Amino acid sequence: PKTLAGSHQYSVKCYDNLKNRLCHIEPVIEKQTSEEIKANRLRLRTSINVVRWLTFQACSFRGHDESDSSKNQGNFLEMVKLLASYDEEVKAVVLSNAPQNAKYTSPQIQKEILNVIADNVQKAIRSEIGDAKFCIIVDESRDESRREQMALVIRFVDKDGFIRERFLDIVHVHDTYSATLKQEICSVLSALNLDVQNIRGQGYDGASNMRGEWNGLQAKFLDECPYAYYVHCLAHQLQLALVAASKEVTEVHNFFDHLALVVDTVVSSSKRNDDLRAHQVAELEQLIELSELETGRGANQIGTLQRPGETRWSSHYDSVCSLIKLYKPTFLVLKDIANTKGPGTIPATRAKAAGAVKLMMKFEFVFIMHVMKELMGITNLLCKKLQQKSQDIVNAMDDVATTKRLIQNLRDHGWNKLISDVTQFCNKQGIKVPNMASSYADYVRGAEVTVEHHYRYDIFMVAVDQQAHELNCRFSEQATELLTLCTSLDPTDSFTKLKIDDVCSLASKFYPADFSEQERDTLRQQLQHYELDVPTNPSFQNLTTIAELCRRLAETGKSDDYYLIDRLIRLVLTLPVSTATTERAFSAMKLVKTRLRNKMEDGFLRYCLIIYIEKEIAVEFTTDQLIDDFDAIQTRRAKFK
């Protein structure tokens, strides 16, 4: 039995242990839980970083065989292995070192992570829009598995005065009826708390289901929101104008058929491409030896012929330019094909090559090639400008007007330079130049004229006039009262276009829902001060677009002084210019949903595209933020906080 002193000492020891919290079970459990949470977060952080990186690069996630014995377990697992090989802490908590029920590497977890990131991107876009009015830009296309997908882009002006076109969503639609498209668009907008009544513009292509005046998509939105003005994609209109102009001029139409024959005959074979490069090298060496070419880093690159695309008429310009640059090597390759006989050669191919050789030695082929280079060079610059996200409707129409003037200038003053360039090119290539004063028998038109008359008036003038005519026809519908009044806000030439009455009419006629009657009176008063203040302010000198004006107002704080003018400018900038952003989304879709990934689910495709296209937003999210959002989706076995 214990003595009294021994019992007392034991009790004192127990009391001391009781006072020491480190000996309690709670701190021990708390320490173990803290370490477990840290390991769980590190494990999930690794998976999130891998998912985000693979999505940014449009890479596939899974492999054909993800078993432990597989030599290639797919991009996701292989990337996790790579990260583990560089970090011992990561290695200690992932893959085989992770709990079997909390590895966070399954396909379902990958989808949930994508869902979290995509939702955060959409929330960020919604926050960026705020209370601003916006425009919807919509287009449809089929994906790799032949499913119809509708891309939705939102155009708005942010608080700093920058025009933004954000990819909002992509939705699978069962048909392309306008009612179906409207229902899906409204569902997306409603999910993000975007009011249809705040739509101030619609941008679509010229399909009947989109632009129809009675049952088209634009008409259905106008019925619900009368200020959602529809603008036919200007880039699409330019495309239609170029196609129509080429078809109306017989010689030009035939030229593009001949161009396709020449290019296809050469680039359709790997061997012929190699021969083309070999002839290029030989030509470059000869020109450098004769000191006709400058040498230097990046100069005299070896290229190939560009095929003209069926849907992108601007690609015809690239095709023409590439042929002019590679004319002699192309001719030599075609000549070799035409003269090569024996086993393995195809008579039909030799016949095509022989026909192409004869075409390339004709003056008319070279002449039209240079005409189209000059003409399409003018419209190609316009095409690129119209596809810029920061383009505004007023500046776009100014660019169209400038293009028309350049085409007219080419018609009036471009002949002498053109015929000089063609003659010089023909002499260099050994092509016979006809006597311009000699007679030319035109059997099609039934007239006998001079050679110069045929090339100058029957081809050059007609081609230029037809192009100008198509541009006038396609873009004349844009010269509406709305756009005319919008030009009164144009800051070019020191605000000489500013007209107070026109600005007030713009607000009262086209945006009455955005300005109360009292605000319209205040707007006129602000304009009177604005007219005397802003044009002479050093901060507003040399502005060229309304978009620049909007940004400068925000930078200088003048947007607070002239808040009604700023509001009107933002409404004008919201009007769409082209559907190029949606088409870029479909280009991204082809990178994400490929032939090898054609069974991708619509949800997975949607998440990937939102993250891939809006990468600049997705990259800003911290991993800890994404972990917390992931944990909030549902109750997890593993603890993260």
Automatic annotation (TrEMBL):
Pfam families: Dimer_Tnp_hAT (PF05699), DUF4371 (PF14291)
Residues of the HAT C-terminal dimerisation domain: 559-616
Sequence ranges assigned to domain DUF4371 in this UniProt record: 13-216
Listed GO MF terms: protein dimerization activity
PANTHER family: GENERAL TRANSCRIPTION FACTOR 2-RELATED ZINC FINGER PROTEIN, ZINC FINGER, MYM DOMAIN CONTAINING 1
Protein's UniProt name: DUF4371 domain-containing protein
